[in-house]
């Protein structure tokens, strides 16, 4: 089997080309290129040596991987394409689905992911089942099209015997797939589907499958003669086996949502909705979950009335600037989510509100998170499907925010004390008060009083008197003013009080100090 490699990063091309396992797989690298146009021109010239597999990056200069694949598959529809994608290209990569791309592998990738994908294509490319898979995918897309009538859907199917069977819809999703994609961690939906095929070889049921955005859809066809209880048991058994096989051999975990029994394949849309709604509760249950729609309905019936969640406590935690308070706060939130039985949508909404509250609190301390940082955090929050993973991310986010707030508070305290010192130095001769300073700084009087005491060990009055005595010492040493004249000059109204305080702080009376 011949392979052609296209990537604008030479290191990536060299890595792929140099893999020693190609020979063991019976594969040969017949060419490589640094961009789509160079590859296209080279491939057209090859004529009789067109590769069986094209391994291509998506984003490249001159001509990207999407356009290269479109042109090549128009001329050589039997060619298989494997895309190498970066996390930021996920939506961009979706355009390739209509082209019939065989697999998407995220960068950075492990060699086993690429080799497994090529091996699967090699083993199945000449299998007559390959054409059957394509038909199945077309039928599934037709049946899930809400704009088509039941008659149109019935006419599109060429297997009328399937209308004589009931069905169960299974959505097999990679856990945290959006986050894996966002962070560039490797996963392969094609490899997952291969594991599902292995499992289904042990069961007598006909089935359809297709790749979904988050994993694989599996439709089991069940005879009407099989009772509902046995149907549910068989579907659960299939799910358990898929879960066991996948989680043992893949570098990522999966969870499975199972619909109720569908009376007809024409109800496939309902099956999809039920299976997907089951997976919303994976947020509470965790990775490697199997959730059946019937069980989920029971959970919903027992669920308490959801209450409004107040994030006032979060503001207090942030304002205190103590990271040790964050784990306990998040544990409380986790208990609320579990107790209220919140689904994925509500939990994500509450976590997004935490991000908003944190941003507003930081602004109150003079911190302004950049729009890029805020967007990245929000994207990360929305990418989680497992509550424990989401809570771990939120803990890291809140700890960073608290550290920034604590630093800002320390700087703010230093700046405020500087303002206090400057105020006293500037106006010590006047009849000044702490209330006057608080009004000048637009700060709460009580807060300012506590801050001064905490940072200096003295209250405002003591600081003022100490500074006046220092100024008095200078005047007594450098001028001919009498001690009572000095008292008035530095802001004291009572010379006797001045003399008493002067001796207390210096150990001498004003007269003794001047002498």
From TrEMBL:
PTM annotation (4-aspartylphosphate): residues: 57
Database matches in Pfam families: HTH_18, Response_reg
GO molecular function annotations of the record: DNA-binding transcription factor activity; sequence-specific DNA binding
Gene3D superfamilies: 3.40.50.2300, Homeodomain-like
Gene Ontology terms: biological process: phosphorelay signal transduction system
Keywords: DNA-binding, Phosphoprotein, Transcription, Transcription regulation
Keyword Ligase in annotation: no
Domain HTH araC/xylS-type: 418-515
Residue span(s) of domain Response regulatory: 2-122
Record's protein name: Response regulator
High-level lineage: Bacteria, Bacillati, Bacillota, Bacilli, Bacillales
């Amino acid at each position: 089997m011949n392979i052609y490699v296209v990537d604008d990063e030479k290191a990536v091309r060299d890595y792929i080309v140099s893999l020693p396992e190609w020979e063991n797989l019976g594969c040969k690298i017949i060419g490589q290129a640094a961009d789509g146009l160079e590859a296209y021109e080279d491939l057209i010239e090859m004529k009789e040596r067109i590769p069986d597999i094209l391994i291509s990056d998506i984003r490249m200069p001159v001509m990207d991987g999407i356009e290269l694949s479109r042109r090549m598959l128009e001329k050589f529809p039997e060619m298989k394409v494997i895309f190498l994608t970066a996390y930021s290209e996920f939506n961009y990569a979706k355009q390739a689905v209509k082209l019939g791309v065989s697999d998407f592998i995220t960068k950075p990738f492990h060699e086993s992911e690429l080799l497994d994908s090529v091996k699967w294509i090699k083993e199945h490319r000449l299998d007559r089942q390959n054409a059957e898979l394509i038909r199945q995918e077309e039928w599934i897309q037709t049946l899930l099209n809400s704009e088509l009538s039941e008659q149109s859907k019935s006419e599109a199917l060429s297997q009328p015997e399937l209308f004589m069977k009931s069905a169960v819809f299974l959505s097999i999703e990679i856990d945290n797939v959006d986050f894996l994609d966002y962070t560039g961690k490797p996963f392969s939906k094609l490899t997952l589907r291969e594991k599902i095929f292995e499992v289904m070889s042990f069961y007598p049921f006909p089935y359809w499958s297709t790749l979904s955005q988050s994993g694989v859809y599996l439709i089991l066809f069940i005879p009407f003669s099989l009772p509902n209880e046995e149907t549910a048991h068989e579907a659960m058994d299939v799910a358990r086996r898929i879960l066991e096989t996948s989680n043992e051999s893949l570098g990522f975990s999966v969870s499975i949502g199972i619909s109720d029994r569908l009376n007809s394949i024409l109800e496939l849309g309902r099956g999809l909705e039920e299976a997907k709604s089951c997976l919303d509760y994976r947020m509470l249950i965790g990775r490697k979950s199997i959730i059946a729609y019937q069980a989920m309905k029971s959970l919903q019936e027992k669920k308490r009335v959801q209450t409004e969640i107040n994030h006032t406590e979060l503001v207090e935690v942030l304002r205190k600037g103590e990271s040790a308070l964050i784990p306990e706060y998040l544990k409380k939130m986790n208990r609320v989510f579990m107790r209220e039985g919140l689904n994925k949508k509500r939990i994500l909404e509450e976590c997004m509100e935490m991000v908003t509250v944190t941003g507003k609190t930081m602004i109150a301390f003079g911190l302004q998170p950049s729009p890029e940082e805020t967007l990245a955090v929000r994207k990360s929050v929305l990418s989680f499907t497992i509550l424990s993973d989401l809570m771990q991310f939120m803990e890291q986010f809140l700890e960073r925010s608290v550290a920034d707030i604590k630093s800002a508070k320390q700087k703010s305290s230093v700046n405020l004390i500087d303002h206090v010192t400057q105020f006293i130095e500037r106006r010590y001769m006047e009849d000044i008060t702490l209330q006057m300073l608080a009004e000048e700084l637009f700060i709460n009087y009580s807060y300012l009083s506590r801050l001064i005491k905490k940072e200096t060990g003295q209250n405002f009055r003591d600081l003022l008197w100490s500074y006046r005595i220092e100024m008095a010492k200078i005047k007594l040493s450098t001028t001919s003013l009498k001690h009572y004249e000095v008292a008035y000059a530095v802001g004291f109204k009572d010379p006797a009080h001045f003399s008493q305080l002067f001796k207390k702080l210096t150990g001498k009376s004003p007269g003794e100090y001047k002498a």
